[in-house]
Amino acid sequence: MPPQQRRQRQVVEDDEDEDMHDQAPQSPTDADYDGDERMGGVGQRDETSQLIKNLVRYALACEYSRTPIRRDGIRDKAAKSQSQKEPTSNAYVLVSILPEEYTTPAIIAPSKVQSADGEASYIALYTMVIAIITLSGGELSDPRLRRHLTRLNAAENMPSMNPNDETSPSEKTDIVLQRMIKQGYLVRVTESRTAGAGDEESTIWHVGPRGKVEVDKDVLAAFVRTIYGGSSDELEKKMQVSLKIKERKPGAPDTVDEEPEEAPPEGDPGPSTRRRGRRRQTEVEDGDSE
């Protein structure tokens, strides 16, 4: 055999040996390890899916009772095995991203309430307080808030959540304000200051996270227009400065216009035209019979 052919055959045999080494069957340990990895991935997906379901249930339950969604509650009820890595405010607000036509009371029931009248009064109260704080620059001292409540005849008492209850048709103002704080509509900050002979405490009121979401700038603008009985150039300019809203033409409606009915398909005269056609055809037949 020529030397050149012998060298080529030797090179081919070496390549086949390398391929056999590369394609060697996996040991039982390696196969088990790959199977464990696949099973681990499936288990991790199932755990994540369960955590998502628990979080959704917890968020909906909190929204129904107007309870702030806090990280402690998520950790205890939805994600017991998850550890916190970054510090946050530990409070969340559930926000609906559904289109406006799907957020009507007929589809989404209101939060847990004792009375429809009491709910309406409560909404009006916290909307008014939030509007006063926002239009005052985002914060309001406790004495100034009390003065505003006195003008509203709500310095000592406010309507209760169930005004139809003859035994307690009203509640103490401090109790209602405390409920607004608990539900996230308001935030009360107490600061200590050293003045003269001793320390003095000053209380400042701010809009809470839920208040900012439910009573946003557009809602406040519509509320102010309702209070002032309509819109005007001067009022719109003041609200643009105070609320940082876009320019709005006076007299423009606050409500969304209803969409016009869809036109019937081409060749279809529509139900009203069909009814008129049937009536005309009946009259012709009656005339022929006579």
UniProtKB/TrEMBL annotation:
Compositionally biased region (Acidic residues): 255-265
Region Disordered, residue ranges: 1-46, 244-290
Superkingdom of origin: Eukaryota
Domain MAGE, chain residue ranges per copy: 55-220
Compositional bias annotation for Basic and acidic residues: 36-46
Matches recorded under Pfam families: MAGE
Entry protein name: MAGE domain-containing protein
Species for this entry: Staphylotrichum longicolle
Lineage of producing organism: Eukaryota, Fungi, Dikarya, Ascomycota, Pezizomycotina
